[in-house]
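Researcher: Here's the sequence for the chain we discussed earlier.
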Amino acid sequence: MVPVAVDLGAVVAAAAYVGRFAPSPTGPLHRGSLAAALASWLDARVHGGQWLIRIEDIDGPRCRRGAEETILGQLAACGLYPDRPVIRQRDRTEDYQRALDALRTGGFAYPCACSRRVIEEALATQRGMAPERHAERRYPGTCRAGIAEGASHGPRAWRLRVPEGAAAQIDWVDRRLGRHVEAIDRTVGDFVLLRADGVWAYQLAVVVDDAGQGVTDVVRGEDLADSTARQVLLQRMLGLATPRYLHVPLVRDAAGEKLSKQTGAEAFVPGSAALAQAMRDLGLGASGVATTVPGLLAEAVGRWRASWGKI
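Model: Thanks. This is the structure I predict for it:
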């Protein structure tokens, strides 16, 4: 597989370490979000790097007015300030288009007219079961050779033409979770780059954004570990560098479910109490003597260095 050449414009030169926190402005941050933000900030500080904030607002209908300002205020109240100006995905659509165009030119992307129902029916037919009973979600390649004749809606999305065999096997190492190997052609198949509703897919946007910001290290919740192989594949196909990855444990509720906006997780109250809780959630222990935000951050840096000081 020969990578395609993608022009991302003025790509920021990477420092020795560049980390980032990338929230979606769909509501205020909750306790789990703060733990992820603190982990990424601590890792950058321990390794003498830069810490950036990227607002992932590419899915406009899901974004809430005023959420970005609330998020930035919550982080600032906990002493978490970015080292460069905040960037927003809504301003980066030209870079996403350049990446898609490069993949199309190289024959690595194709239009797809499949609805979700069509995909479920095709998968069910392959497995010989009713669509509603079919749990597999790997794209069956219906439009790989061209949009089927008679498709009523024309192209609905753009998909990556995932290579087959050894080229689709992605081997990557997480600093906490260890080695992962995934054959993407068998697990997810040709995944979406541009959705049918015109919204850029997360996998493409995050790869282009990380490259554009010169990100060297991604520290985020372990629920996103499943996306990493697809992102590494895209990085390789676009000729972009692959960051180091560290996926931290999720913060869960009393029932063991991940805290999330979708399940109604409450916004945290900014300040020292929330920061101390985030330290505990990351396994950094309770505060020793510090009670202020600067003091707690200083304690957290020392404890993070002891656990994650080596890359």
